[in-house]
Amino acid sequence: MLTTVYIVYYSLFGHVHRLAQAVAEGVRDAGAAAALYRVPETLPADVIEKMGAAAFQKEFAAVPVIDRHRLGDADAVIIGTPTRFGNMCGQMRQFFDSTGGLWSEGALAGKIGSVFTSSSCQHGGQETTIITTMVTLLHHGMILAGLPYTFGQQCRSDEITGCSPYGASTIVAADGSRMPSENELAGARHQGKYVALLANALVEKRSAIMQELAGG
């Protein structure tokens, strides 16, 4: 049976969506199954229209909404969220605030968790968004994975680029006109593959680990 990685994300204009697709490519390259899900929208349709995001949202609607009760079915979960003042977006926050039942069951404990993001500028809170999102994953007992320096292109300085050791990211520009570069997409693919390889190695051992912990 294939290791299953859920890529759970929110995207308003398509930037995080494109990264999510690249993450999925990396997961599959590692021989695992990738499932893409979006979190529920909280903005009214008229607000989305005024923001100029209605066209992409019609495309985004094809991505199934995650059932929070099924989040624990995954062997690893990779979260994608735009930056909102250095934190995850409100849609993602509301979703995680609804996962108390999973927390009480330890449904995600001992599973790999990872995060990717976007921001409007280079210093727009990409790293803090990933790190603060990881705090929530730690409360769920997850084992964190970032984007290691095995992806050396995160250090390049010949072009503007997102990505850091915490996770893949893209810089969208103040007007949202910049879509992820090939380098940023390569980082997302690398992260997806890395998480899937870790999950492949851990999946058979997790049950034994959790049983040992339960036994005191």
Key attributes of the depicted protein:
216 residues, alpha/beta, 7 helices, 17% strand, globular
Report on the structure:
This protein is an alpha/beta fold and 216 residues long. The protein is built from seven helices and seven strands, in the order E-H-E-H-H-E-E-H-H-E-H-E-E-H. Strands 1, 2, 3, 4, 5, 6 and 7 form a seven-stranded mixed beta sheet that branches. Helix 1 crosses helix 7. It is globular, with a radius of gyration of 17 Å.
Task: Record the SSE blueprint.
Layout: E1 4-9, H1 15-29, E2 33-38, H2 45-50, H3 54-60, E3 76-84, E4 87-88, H4 90-97, H5 100-105, E5 112-119, H6 126-139, E6 143-144, E7 169-171, H7 182-214
Parallel strand pairs: 1-2, 1-3, 3-5, 5-6, 5-7
Antiparallel strand pairs: 3-4
